[in-house]
Design goal:
Blueprint (H helix, E strand, L loop, with lengths): L10 E5 L28 H12 L5 E5 L9 H9 L6 E6 L4 H11 L3 E5 L5 H8 L4 H14 L4 E5 L10 H5 L8 E5 L6 H5 L6 H12 L2 E3 L12 E5 L5 E5 L12 E4 L4 E3 L7 E3 L1 H5 L4 H13 L19 H4 L2
Parallel strand pairs: 1-2, 1-10, 2-3, 3-4, 4-5, 5-6, 6-9
Antiparallel strand pairs: 7-8, 8-9, 10-11, 11-12
Helix pairs in contact: 3-5
């Protein structure tokens, strides 16, 4: 369907849990994390009902996120059931990769089309400091296991942060030298912990410069055709099997092309990462609302999707929740 600004909305990100087995500094506080009860989060049946209904409005791609989605009980069953919905063309998952080596084959067989793995550094000490857990080797093992399993669309997501992983940027790009994967650099979003702690992202221009200094000229690639596209732009380096991507929502605003909405683990339909406005779906789901009533609610909500984010402006619309609470 089209939203109020004639953008085609076809992509839903679903947070399956607010819990995680890492404590990345830009996503979660080190301790004192309030945990939702089992009752607070949507059941698998409730998630499936939302997906079935929203697919009737034109949603074609589903991304499963968290927290860490691989820790959600009965995840594989959920994936298999989403796979049965005719309108859904693509199912993706974003994971920190810690459990991936053990689950890659099952995820592949369940029907995952696209795998995104969060990794901000190749240095063990930096990883342990940034993520507050020593698990780099498990993540690297997970990446290689996923490739061997047969996943054809694997993306590595890195968030460049000044004074934290600056020196690791170029080395991380090297993962795509001999692997058929995409290494992407995502601008730090001023959300939750990142906003409150004063962490500063590294401008994309500097990231590109660091990569070219080590690996040579980045050659721009045209957008892929026939796919439900995200906001990334991609480049090729000479001699590389994979690609290098950039997502810079602050430096180069792409709100006019935004095609997504988010569903939090608590059942809140979030229309923009920046804005706190949205629609509670958990309550009507549990009060026995009909499919027709829920479709009306979903349609009305998507029509209210904000025109643009206001990250760089002082306003009362900013969502003050941490990234793990809104879906990474």
């Amino acid at each position: 369907m089209l939203d109020g600004f004639s953008r085609k909305i076809e992509y839903l990100r679903i947070s399956l849990t607010d819990r995680c087995n890492l404590r990345c500094k830009y996503c979660m506080p080190a301790e004192g994390v309030p945990k939702n009860s089992h009752w607070d989060i949507l059941t698998l049946e409730e998630i499936l009902r939302v997906v079935r209904l929203i697919s009737k409005l034109g949603i074609k791609k589903i991304r499963l996120t968290g927290g860490e989605p691989l820790i959600r009980r009965n995840l594989l069953l959920l994936i298999k059931e989403i796979r049965k919905i005719p309108a859904i063309e693509n199912i993706a998952i974003t994971t920190n990769g810690v459990l991936l080596a053990d689950m890659a084959q099952d995820l592949y067989e369940a029907g995952i089309d696209q795998l995104n793995i969060s990794l901000d550094t190749m240095r063990k000490e930096t990883f342990a400091d940034l993520c507050r857990v020593d698990a780099l080797e498990k993540v690297l093992q997970g990446i290689d296991t996923a490739i061997k399993t047969g996943f054809s669309d694997i993306k590595i997501n890195c968030v460049p942060i000044k004074g934290v992983n600056d020196e690791d940027i170029a080395e991380l790009a090297g993962l795509a030298q001999n692997r058929p994967i995409k290494v992407r650099y995502i601008e730090l979003m001023p959300v939750g912990c990142a906003f409150d702690s004063g962490l500063k992202g590294l401008p994309t221009s500097e990231v590109r410069s660091l990569i070219e200094k080590k690996w040579g000229t980045l050659h721009e690639l045209p957008p892929a055709k026939g796919k439900i596209l995200g906001p990334a732009s991609y480049c090729k380096l000479d001699g590389f099997s994979g690609e290098i991507g950039f997502i810079d929502a602050l430096e180069h605003k792409f709100c006019d092309k935004c095609n997504r909405v988010r569903l939090t683990s608590e059942g809140f339909l979030k229309l923009c990462l920046n804005h706190k406005e949205g629609t509670d779906l958990r309550t009507p789901l549990r009060k026995g609302k009909s499919d027709e009533e829920l479709l009306e609610l979903l349609t009305a909500a998507i029509n209210q999707k904000p025109q643009e984010h206001l990250f760089l402006e002082k306003n009362d619309h900013r969502d003050k929740r941490n990234m793990y609470q809104v879906g990474g």
